Amino acid sequence: MYTHRGAYLAALANVVESNLNVDPGRCKYLWTLPMFHAVGWTFPWSVCAEEGVTHFNAAPTVNTLLCSAKEAERLPRPVKVTVAASPHRALVRANGQPQPHPRHVYGLTESYGPLTVSYELPAWESLPPKEKFAKLARQGHGFITSLPVRVVKTKSEEDADSVDPSEPQLTDDTLIDVAKDGKEIGEIVFFGNICAKGYYKDPEATRKLFLGGGLRTGDLAVWHPDGSAQILDRAKDIIISGGENISSVALESLLAEHPGILEVAVVAVQDSHWGERPKAYITAKDPSNPPTQEEIITWAKGKTADPKAGKSGISGFMVPRDVEVLDELPKTSTGKIRKNILREWARK
């Protein structure tokens, strides 16, 4: 259930946060995002479509296909694309090229669409491209019409055996902020004008949505010292291998750097020794000559972290032992990869 005030403020926030107020005149927006996808991220109320496109929105998989297409060519003028949810390397690889310039946002249907934005800071211009991209790929800070985003821990995440009796005890209605150290993991919660009132005629679902007073997302993230949030995974997509948590998002982000991979999705498969281990499903940039499982695994092992060499990357236990090449990844009508189907394939 939405309010007129919430929809109005969400629409105005898009005008500001996606820089729709171009000069001269109005922006010219290419309509690419379905209006049933989180209300078209509220852009139906923010723009109208014309020729001479300056802005568009698209899911990460749509942008990947767009920028990797053989028909792609240099753009005659800058175009800004609002990208949601996932880090998007395809739009950042061509440094200095007139590719669509990404504006990374994050939100839910319950928040009228986007509710955070990764603000690009002037200080980042001097950073190496890879480091700059890592910062751009964060979900970022709260929109102009919302309160600051928070990352919290809750009772369900607290080990009862390790509770310090001198510390305040958590309850289902208690939200305690995680440390802003980029390490401690918690759940993203939202507050402010552009949160939905609740679910229509479903008071129990509404109660669970707002446990603790904030809108609960189910997305696990860390909180950086500058106040920006960075999603690690959906709670249901975290892979627990030998007691270690593996972020499927982090692993997908690394594998996407392989020059032969177009798209990638990682899910958990059962393992008799480790409990779970990651499996990667990929599509190839050149379907006639796809990379082999051995090639990808060897390449990924070369990207693992080596503290002695001062090298950053992933931990060795994250490298998948199984890589399956598909003609196409299963997707929803809005272009999101259907991991539930991939998990079922992996189970079988």
UniProtKB/TrEMBL annotation:
Keyword Ligase: yes
Keywords: Fatty acid metabolism, Ligase, Lipid metabolism
Signal peptide, first to last residue: none
Gene Ontology terms: biological process: fatty acid metabolic process
A Pfam short name: AMP-binding_C
GO molecular function, one term: ligase activity
Domain AMP-binding enzyme C-terminal: 251-336
Family: Belongs to the ATP-dependent AMP-binding enzyme family.
Protein name in UniProt: AMP-binding enzyme C-terminal domain-containing protein
Native organism: Parascedosporium putredinis
